[in-house]
Structures are given as structure tokens and as C-alpha cells.
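Pipeline run #58 for the internal structure catalog. This entry was flagged by the ingest filter as a single-chain record with no existing model, so it goes straight to prediction. Upstream metadata was stripped on purpose; only the residue string is passed forward. Reviewer on rotation: M.T. Logging verbosity set to normal.
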Amino acid sequence: MSKLTNTANTTTAEIQNGLVVSRFGNQVEIMDEDGNVFRCHIRRSLQDIVSGDEVLWQEEFSSNKKVKGVVTEIIERHSVLKRLIRYEGLKPIAANLDRVFVVTAPEPSYSNLIIDRYLVAIELAGIELVILLNKSDRLGDYPELLPALKIYSDMGYQVIPVCAHDESGFGELREALASHTSVFVGQSGVGKSSLVNAIIPDVDTSVSELSENSGLGTHTTTVSKLYHLPSGGQLIDSPGIREFALVHIDKPELEHGFRDFAPYLGHCKFRNCRHIKEPGCAILAAVKEKDIHSLRLESYHLLFEETDEE
């Protein structure tokens, strides 16, 4: 039981551990070790707090009635996924993740480049990655998708075709989620919220149809939230991310986000090789020998132009 200290008319409990379930502006929902959820204020020094953070917090009481809590410290994270937000800079999306599930689909539009953007950021964050192909019931209309995704399974990434509507592939998906803290990321409209609704039937997250005019999805989830899964593990549902720019990554760092480049790095003729057209480039030679897929090199070149200099 927490020890209580009296100060004037306010009684404050001792600091205890908690898990951030969700954030709402300058407040967060905290789950304590007994599974109780409290809404707490955030101190000004802790503005980067996100779902998945383990924190120290304390309840505050007034006239024997609980009024609020306050988060006092963020416990050191073992991983954090960040993205660049316009006018705000690099911001965390979720913390203490074991796995990131990149959700893609035949619609609104499949793109290897978009997947590669996620892969680079997640690889550099040191988090395990799984690719989910949602809306797999439409694969008959998109025969090019499975060969495109085979590029990633050949590199060792787990690729799981699923369908939120009929739950095909959900056995493998639930097994991949079990005993891990995970997050779904992906373009708006690929069905992240629909997948969450199917995995956790009691959760009624907002789902919107694709815009018939633009073909782009709308951002249906406005707040990241952590859910406990019936089969074990935890899932954080994050707001839709239409773009995942990599301008915060230095050019020399970029190549380390391509796991298929790893066996060849350090073997180029020139130490500062950019793998574009330099003679004696081990990456270009591997592409020529088809040990690295040409689409991956194409993605690298496009992302190279987006990234920062040293």
C-alpha cells in the first residue's frame, strides 16, 4: 500500500510505477500494477511521453477523494519509434516496442518505396519488423503484389497476408503478436483500425471509408492507445501516417537501414562510396549479380536524395 503524506488540505501518495495507455494533450491515462487506469497530468519536462512508456507517477487526493495524478518521470526506454512532424521536428510515436507491424494493402496504393521508408526507420531503431498485407481477399486483382512482397520475405522479414473482414491469416497474426508490445503503422486507408477491431472485438475504434474522389484514406485514429490482447501481449494503435519522411537520417546512416546491404558494406573500393555509380562498388556489383534486388537499390537512391548530409 502506498504511504500517504499530508500537505495542507492535499494528501499525496508515494511515487509508483505505471504504464502509459494513451495521451490526450497534457494528460495521459496510466495503468498501475493492479490494472487500474488513472488520468494524470504531465510535467512540462516530459512532453515527449507516448503510449508504451513506463513511468513513475503519483496519485493526488483532496478531501479523501481522488482528484488527479501526476507523472513525475519517464523510465529509460529500451526502444522508441519516431517520425518527423512538420513544424515540430522529430517526435516519438510509441515506446518500448518489441515489434512494428507495417501494414500495407492493394488499396489505396501499394508502394515498395513506402515500405522501404518504414523499414529503414525501424531497422535503425533496432526494433523487429513484420509486414502485414491486409485486404488479401483482393489479391486476385493485383497479381503483382505477392512477387513484390517476396523481396522482403527473401531478406528474412515475416510477411503475413491477412484480411480484417473474414479474419483469414489471423492465426499467424495472433501468434506474432503474443507476448510482445507491438504497433501497427502504415498509410491511411490500409485498414489498421479495422485490424484492431477484428483482433480486439470489444474495441470500437473509428473506421472510415476511402475517399471516393482522392482514393486516399482519412486519419481515423486521432490518439495513440495501448490495448491488452486476449491472447497475451499489447498492441498500440497509432494515428495514420500518410508520409514517413527520412530527412532526419544522415546519408552515411541510411545504408545501415537496408539489411540486405549489410554483407557488402565496407567492401567498396572507396571508403565514402554512395552506391550510385562509383567504380568498385560492392552494392552495385551485388545488384548486378541479383544478390540485392534492383528495386531496393532504386529505393536507396530515392531515399538518399531525401536525407541530410553529415
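catalog note: The two ends are 52 Å apart (CA to CA).
catalog note: Residues 1-10, 62-67, 205-222 have pLDDT under 50 and may be disordered.
status: ready for reviewer M.T.
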